[in-house]
Amino acid sequence: MNQQRTEQLQYMQRKIDEINRSTSSRVDIPKLPILHTNLSGMASTGSDIWIEQAILQSLRFREIQVRFHKIPEAHARTFGWIFGRPAPSQNPELCRNSCVGTLPNVKFIDWLEDSTPQTSLYWIAGKAGAGKSTLMKFLSDHEETKRALASWAGSNPLVIASYFFWCFGTQLQKSQEGLLQTLLYEICRQCPHLIRSCCPWRMGPLARDAWSLSELRKALHNLKTGLVESTKFFVFVDGLDEYDGDTREIVEAIEDLSSLPNIKLCVSSRPWTIFREKFGQDQDRHLFVQDLTKGDINLYVRNTFEADSNFLQAKVEDEKYEDLVTDIVIKAEGVFLWVILVVKSLLNGLTNEDSLRAMHDRLNRLPADLEDFFHHMLKSVEPVYQEKMARTFQVAIAGDGPLPVLVYSHLDDIEECPDYALRLALYPIVRTTGVCSPETEAMFMTDFKKGERQMQKRLDARTKGLLEVVRETTNRNELVNKVSFLHRTVGDFVKREEIMSEFTKITGSTFNVNVMLCHALLATIKALPGISDGRFILTILNDLVHPLLDHAYSEEIGQRAAQIEVIDELERSLTYYHPIHFPVSLVLGVPISLGEVLNSEGSKSLID
Known about the structure:
Layout: H1 3-22, H2 32-59, H3 66-70, H4 92-96, H5 108-113, E1 121-125, H6 132-140, H7 143-153, E2 158-164, H8 176-190, H9 195-198, H10 213-230, E3 232-238, H11 247-258, E4 263-269, H12 273-279, E5 286-288, H13 294-306, H14 309-317, H15 321-332, H16 336-351, H17 356-365, H18 370-379, H19 386-398, E6 403-404, H20 405-409, H21 411-416, H22 420-423, H23 438-463, E7 467-470, E8 482-485, H24 488-494, H25 497-507, H26 513-527, H27 534-559, H28 564-577, H29 594-601
Parallel strand pairs: 1-4, 1-5, 2-3, 3-4
Antiparallel strand pairs: 6-8, 7-8
Helix pairs in contact: 1-2, 8-10, 13-15, 13-16, 16-17, 19-25, 19-26, 26-27, 26-28, 27-29
């Protein structure tokens, strides 16, 4: 809440104190009109603030910051070139073969500070795995960015917002609705005095209602006058190529946003033709990440190697190990993700006491193309893990977004016993409170952490790190940790038709991923204890129940096979854990139309 609202609340508190003092002994009849006026004013102000907060809550969605926190932090001292500072480099040959120290086309800081820019948009482009999202996160949170924007804003208020598209996320993480809702939320959060002017129709009973795309567009259109009068607005939009829809739609949306007064946008994407044509015409207002990161890659490789005791020992024995760093940087061609994977592979070689020649041989055998590298990694999975690898990737693909670690931990059990989830005992709880005892909860969390460590090792063995456990930084409970693709490019790769065909060939035609997911999700629901934080466990259940119903419905319409036993057991489990909190009633033992359940709920939480 901004300074204006803080002052209003302080004013209300002073008035309440005055009223308390004036009425502590007796009521002064002549002062009753003044008292009535003060109370009416406070009631009106309080009502306005309540409605503003309700509107803010309607704009905020649970995943609003999830993608930002999942993006890796920039390696220390990298990306300084974006502000005109060359990356440190100790290799003269590397400097001669890179743009380090010159940076002729990077005028980003000038554009940030420019009070009368010819264009309100700056485009950061780069090929897959070059580090665009990491750079955007770095910029959006850097003090140098804030300083430059403060210079641009001058005495005007400044609103900074960011949105990171994520093609593997929820609908609000990859759509226009999500983008506009996030931007409107940030504007209204930082400038609540603009709420009334941007959406006057919501200053009442509609305050908490869900937003439509047309409403969001109307509200942003209404803000034009407010922004002209009072506010400078800067927005980062990462991953335009991850938009779920016609690319022309998101281009038009960005162009429409850039037409707002007093606004600047920094957007990023892969260098697709449509983005080049729309955003890449001004040489001073775009850059290609892979052309500028040789110094950063050199620094990352050197620092990572020198943090390894085996490398330091090898370096003492043979100075030519330095050449290995240069070879990696040159072969990388600006693709940071490739470098990370290569360095990991080479460090494994050092652990095995590889010689310098063996290290170079290993490097030369690794494909320079990122997708070829992924294929090489899959082929290197041990034969004993091949079928589990294929099943795991099929689950990750069908999951339509990251799934909790617990879901993956049940896959092996279901493979061994198809009825495992149906037979699994419910976690013991105290019937009067609906939660387990503190001792039981502590025991569960100990077992969970142990199982998570085991799952990470299994994923490393079965997927060579292409799937990883991502720890939530926005929630205190480890139960929300999920399994995700190492990078968007990994998801794109394994979804290719020929790769999917390879997985199907390995698992055989009898493997049904929808049924597997129904059972794995059910087992996860049954394995959760009644943790004392009721709202948290309800959130977890909501992340599990909707996907289970989705996959059961897909199986019902695809194979005409209703998952009656699974749905019956789901209802029994939910009734056992949350007889009061869970309002959805499914008919036991009767084939139901899951389409009706899903359509009636839409995107609304099943657990409210």
